[in-house]
Request: fold
Amino acid sequence: MITERELLQLRPKLIAFTQAYAGKYKKYLMNKKKLSKPPSMGITTIDDIVQNVLIILIRKIRKADEIIESYEAWSIGACKKVIENTIDRAYKKKQDYLLSDKFKKIKDTDGNEVDPQNLIEEGQFQDRSEDGFGKTIKNMCLKKLNNDFRITIILNIFYGYTTKSISEELGKSQNTVLTWLTKAKREFRDCILGK
Reply:
């Protein structure tokens, strides 16, 4: 069984590897596909990748599905696969939208124009008068949502965009956006309530 101490020692190593490998893989794909700029990972963050890999590692150890001789080697291999899949999926399917690709500027609560991607990455779109625990729960639940669902719910609930304007911006049908929004609200509510 892996100890908490081993996890705490492993996490910074994985974050450092994942950041370095993501940059290296983006350059590789950029050269291979002859892109003018590096491909995006969308709104998936390095921290999300490492967190998910560690959770999978703990589950595998707990279930004893396979014998893992080196937790570090297994985790690095898993991070490598997740990065490649995430970047490839974002490039091929254009699923992982960067809000800044779709919306040049969004006005924050003070009326100032800001880069929308920064609002998501910093969690500022939910800057309301509430305790830190509530913000943490919202961040956690929003991160669990599918990328399409997350963008749709943020634009609709936090910025007041209609489904019609979201569908125009994302180049999807209004029915698709309505479906995403309905599912996003349900998943978000279930997460907040702990279902």
Summary: The first strand starts at residue 106 and ends at 107. Confidence is low (pLDDT under 50) at residues 95-102, 121-131.
